[in-house]
User: Fold these one by one.
Assistant:
Number 1:
Amino acid sequence: MSKLVVSYGIEPKDMVREALAAIGAASTINSKDKIGIKPNLVVDQPAALGATTSVKVVAGIIEYLQSAGCHNIIVLESSSIGHSTARAFSVCGYDKLAAQYGVELVNLKKDKTATVTTADLNIAVCRTALELDYLINVPVLKAHCQTDLTCALKNLKGCIPDREKRRFHSLGLHRPIAALNKAIQTNLVVVDGMCGDLTFEEGGNPVPMNRIIVGFDP
């Protein structure tokens, strides 16, 4: 299913709900599914600086899911090495989001792991990510110093422990990221293209793009 829906505007929650409805996302989800939403909270910076997923985008996803009868929802993330996921949840507004919508925040830095073998690589993956019924990947559209682009594929790197993140860099990122995307199934992608840094993955030079991109194939 390679269809993409692109929504342009300045109201992320409305744009997300409309795009998900247009692509028929609800028809692919069972209301009893354990649903995981994986934003990009690589650092503890507000989304306006271009590095992290806007909490308004995730709020739009949650509102869409809950209106479709889905209530078993978690938000899961592990920030980059040297950065606190708990602080990122707080600074980026996810603590308030969790309280408002009754969803759980899962800090994957504290999660147990399981080894998955794919593409001739053994990869330690956070168990919570593997135990989901449905994964919604919510990356930021932005640049990266090593891979040029970081979006849906690389965002799954937040589902592995820090020791594995280090090893991925030693392996050159491209091959292990491809393998990781075979190890973890993404069911739906909602790209936050509202504001991204087009020069560096940790933000600081934000560029407003005012778009949301939704599809099923990362």
Number 2:
Amino acid sequence: MSSDTKPKSLRQIQKEQTRELLIETAIEEYGRHGFLSVTTADIAKASGFSHGTVFAHFGTQEALLETVIEVFGLRISRRLHELAATRVGLRDVLCAHLEGLMEYEPFYTRLVTEGRLLPESARHTLIAIHSTISHHIGQAAEIEIQAGTIGPMPMHLLYNTWIGLIHYYLVNNDLFAPGESVLERYGIELLDHFMHLVQSK
């Protein structure tokens, strides 16, 4: 620590912890009840804080929603970024993507099903997340295309085929895995199927 870097005060630490708890509670509440049903009052009650505390940290419900989506995206993309730096294969990157989505499956399912109804700023945040994830998957795919292990194809088709497959199962989770994690049940099977589709013939 440099001499001009001051340690955080107890108040600063408590403020950061409160903010983190509000975000975690919001992820759970949005995943359980949906973005359109959950209010800031619901999040305050579920987290054990006052309604005023939520607004002290986020200002508006839209700001809270945008922050929660952004935090989710950072967590997913951080792991993919670490993998991309080690030049692992496409399957490894897709597997890490699956694992990240599985950890937040109820929340992400709500994003998929209610995304078009979100405020514009939140939708832009979601688009930025997909852009980042697509970039990392594309990097891994390009290496394998050059090596000849998967067939040449436009990156947008490769990514959209993968994400479309995942989204179809999530949106129809009541058909594929009622009351369970659809990605836990079918994730590896979907991954195997996708890799078979893109393999160089």
